[in-house]
């Protein structure tokens, strides 16, 4: 007898890419998880990728020597308003720039001011923007799209927003491209979304911010669940943060690691610190005097980029070599890059470059894997091997290397190296695209929030929300919920009415929940369940809870169980209800108490259908769908056991009283003071289900 052949090992190959870009302890949305199966990997001959000389900045170092500035990459950026650059504003006075841009920036400025003034200011700006848009100013068109999308000083209209973003995108406004791409991907029009996101991702890859230490540049979530995220906010206070001040003190006392860290904060503009290359350079230079290797590598990068200094590849190589001698393997990436390009060295030497990249890769430097991937993808110094390239990219992506996501997205997009998969390509490109220069909006929003300028913060988050940033969507929605009128939300005329505010919050939470934010999905579910800010609708509530359930959210499971138990929005089904309750418990042991209460009530319901006990349970305050709050408010204060015991005692006492009452009624009195007969739980009611 032939035993069935085991499938080849490779068929079980599952590659998990945990997108560490989104990983952070405070994140409520699940991290993006990319699961590649053997099916995604192409078998058989691989199509030759056409050499694509236009693709730039493939190397994981420094970008190209003629890299474009963030402002070039994001025309119409709001940077001049939120991060005015003194040297630029001077030169602007000498050479009056494009009057279209002047007009546009004046409108943005007025719009930001209008948020705090209220009244008719916003309507005046809107008219100004509208007439500029009518003359074909793409940036004004993009703004007008924003007004229509949000319903500020204009009647909310998705169609008009789409139209104006379309015009603006056609004329090169990148933020409108992002808004369009997001709209298309929401409608599953992937063939259009993917093209826009690809272009945006390429721009992002070319931007400075994509480089190192990127996780910290992610938009900050200002709330966690319903509460303000104090920890994250504290860490974003820049130079005012106590930790930063302690670090600075240590650096001044001569601690080289502290010097390096301060330098990094200034170099990338992390944690609310304003980017300042001069200060970064100053601290790195002090740190290298003490032999701090990572600062040497950064100096190498600074000289190769010419960031705030005159570009000098010779110096770059010197610093990188020094760093590599101290066993800082990531420095080999930079050296390899210089050899690929022939910068600062006698001549190009691909063999040497490859040796360096391998050295980095052997020491688990994601950049090394990535660069080897590029060599094999393009056949530089090696025989072209797209499959091998793909493997290297997957390793690098697993380590959170954003450019590797970009390469994998390209493979899914073109079908070279991986099976064509447009939805997958879209979501990978989106991850990368969202790190482009436009992500600075989030920094300004946070700055405004920390300064207590809620209206400004809300405006900026609203803009990012329409560009598809999940974090901004939930931040904006949270501000609306938390601050109410103080959110300075601008409506169709003047400040938002309550209805407008609720409607807007609802739509923002909805979008965030679509993008996998569990908290948002629960809020949406609750909104439909209780009819808050929308019509009560149990079906939609169930839908939303299902959404959160698919992400293994214990509370969603619990709520689904509850809805099955009561036949709200879902068929009355006590079996299923129990299954959901059990699952909730499996996922989150902290849900033990509410689940036990729910199971107890389910048990009563099964065994005492139509009895007063069921009414009793139903009349218990609507705590069940709010298990979370319940746990917080009651259990944490009083302790589980007490509450549970009380509940059980209450049920027992009530049950005994009921028995007694019936017996008195049946037995014609005289039974007072007699101990109740032993319990026979199933004696009077036919069980509903078993
Ligand atoms: C670049 O640096 C090297 C070594 O430090 C120096 O000799 C050279 O003059 C510099 N080149 C320029 C153009 O500044
Ligand atoms: C390139 O580097 C390799 C290995 O380091 C070396 O053996 C070779 O001679 C170099 N080639 C040239 C042309 O310098
Ligand atoms: C409540 O129950 C959970 C899970 O059983 C347990 O971890 C926790 O310590 C309990 N809390 C109190 C206050 O008893």
From TrEMBL:
Any GO CC annotation of this UniProt entry: endoplasmic reticulum membrane
Signal peptide segment: 1-29
Membrane topology listed for this record: Single-pass membrane protein
Gene Ontology terms describing biological process: ERAD pathway
Keywords for this protein: Endoplasmic reticulum, Glycoprotein, Membrane, Repeat, Signal, Transmembrane, Transmembrane helix
Compartments it resides in: Endoplasmic reticulum membrane
Region called Disordered, residue ranges: 41-96, 666-690
InterPro entries assigned: HRD3 (IPR044623), Sel1-like (IPR006597), TPR-like_helical_dom_sf (IPR011990)
Family in the record: Belongs to the sel-1 family.
Protein's name according to its UniProt entry: ERAD-associated E3 ubiquitin-protein ligase component HRD3A
Species the sequence originates in: Lactuca saligna (Willowleaf lettuce)
């Amino acid at each position: 007898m032939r035993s069935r052949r085991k499938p080849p090992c490779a068929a079980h190959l599952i590659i998990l890419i945990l997108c560490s870009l989104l990983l952070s302890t405070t994140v409520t949305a699940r991290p993006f998880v990319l699961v590649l199966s053997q099916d995604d990997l192409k078998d058989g001959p691989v199509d030759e990728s056409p050499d694509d000389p236009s693709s730039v900045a493939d190397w994981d170092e420094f970008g190209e020597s003629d890299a474009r500035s963030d402002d070039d990459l994001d025309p119409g950026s709001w940077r001049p308003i939120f991060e005015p650059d003194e040297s630029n504003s001077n030169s602007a006075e000498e050479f009056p720039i494009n009057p279209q841009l002047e007009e546009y920036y004046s409108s943005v400025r007025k719009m930001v001011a209008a948020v705090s003034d209220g009244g008719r200011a916003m309507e005046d700006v809107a008219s100004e923007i509208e007439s500029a848009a009518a003359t074909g100013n793409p940036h004004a068109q993009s703004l007008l799209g924003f007004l229509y999308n949000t319903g500020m000083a204009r009647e909310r209209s998705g169609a008009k927003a789409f139209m104006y973003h379309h015009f603006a995108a056609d004329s090169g406004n990148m933020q409108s491209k992002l808004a369009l791409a997001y709209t298309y991907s929401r409608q599953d029009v992937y063939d259009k979304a993917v093209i826009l996101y690809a272009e945006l991702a390429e721009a992002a890859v070319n931007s400075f911010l994509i480089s190192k230490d990127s996780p910290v540049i992610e938009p900050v979530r200002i709330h966690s669940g319903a509460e303000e995220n104090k920890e994250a906010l504290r860490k974003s206070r820049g130079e005012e943060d106590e930790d930063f001040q302690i670090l600075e003190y240590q650096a001044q006392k001569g601690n080289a690691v502290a010097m390096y860290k301060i330098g990094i904060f200034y170099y990338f503009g992390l944690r609310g610190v304003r980017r300042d290359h001069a200060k970064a350079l100053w601290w790195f230079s002090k740190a290298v005097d003490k032999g701090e290797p990572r600062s040497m590598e950064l100096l190498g990068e600074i000289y190769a980029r010419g960031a705030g200094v005159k570009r000098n590849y010779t110096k770059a190589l010197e610093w990188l070599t020094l760093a590599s001698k101290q066993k800082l393997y990531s420095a080999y990436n930079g050296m390899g890059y210089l050899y690929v390009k022939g910068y600062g060295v006698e001549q190009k030497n691909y063999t040497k470059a490859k040796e360096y990249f391998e050295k980095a890769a052997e020491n688990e430097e994601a950049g090394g894997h990535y660069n080897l991937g590029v060599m094999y993808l393009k056949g530089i110094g090696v025989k072209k091997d797209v499959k091998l390239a793909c493997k290297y990219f997957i390793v690098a992506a697993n380590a959170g290397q954003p450019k590797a996501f970009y390469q994998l997205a390209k493979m899914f997009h073109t079908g070279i190296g991986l099976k064509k998969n447009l939805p997958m390509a879209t979501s990978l490109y989106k991850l990368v695209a969202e790190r482009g220069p436009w992500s600075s909006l989030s920094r300004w929003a946070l700055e405004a929030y920390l300064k207590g300028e809620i209206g400004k913060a809300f405006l900026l988050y609203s803009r990012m929300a329409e560009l598809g940033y999940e974090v901004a969507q939930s931040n904006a929605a949270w501000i609306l919920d938390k601050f109410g009128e103080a959110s300075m939300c601008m409506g169709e005329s003047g400040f938002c009415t309550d209805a407008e505010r609720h409607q807007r919050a609802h739509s923002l939470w909805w979008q965030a929940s679509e993008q996998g934010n569990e908290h948002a999905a629960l809020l949406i579910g609750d909104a439909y369940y209780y009819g808050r800010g929308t019509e009560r609708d149990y079906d939609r509530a169930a839908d939303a809870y299902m959404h959160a359930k698919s992400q293994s959210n214990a509370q969603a499971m619990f709520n689904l169980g509850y809805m099955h138990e009561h036949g709200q929005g879902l068929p009355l089904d006590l079996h299923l209800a129990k299954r959901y309750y059990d699952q909730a418990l499996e996922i989150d042991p902290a849900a033990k108490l509410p689940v036990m209460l729910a199971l107890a009530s389910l048990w009563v319901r099964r065994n005492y259908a139509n009895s007063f006990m069921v009414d009793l349970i139903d009349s218990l305050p609507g705590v069940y769908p709010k298990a979370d709050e319940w746990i917080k408010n009651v259990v944490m204060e009083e302790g589980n056991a007490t509450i549970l015991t009380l509940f059980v005692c209450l049920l027992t006492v009530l049950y005994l009283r009921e028995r007694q009452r019936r017996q008195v009624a049946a037995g014609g009195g005289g039974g007072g003071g007699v101990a109740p007969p032993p319990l026979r739980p199933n004696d009077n009611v036919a069980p509903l289900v078993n």
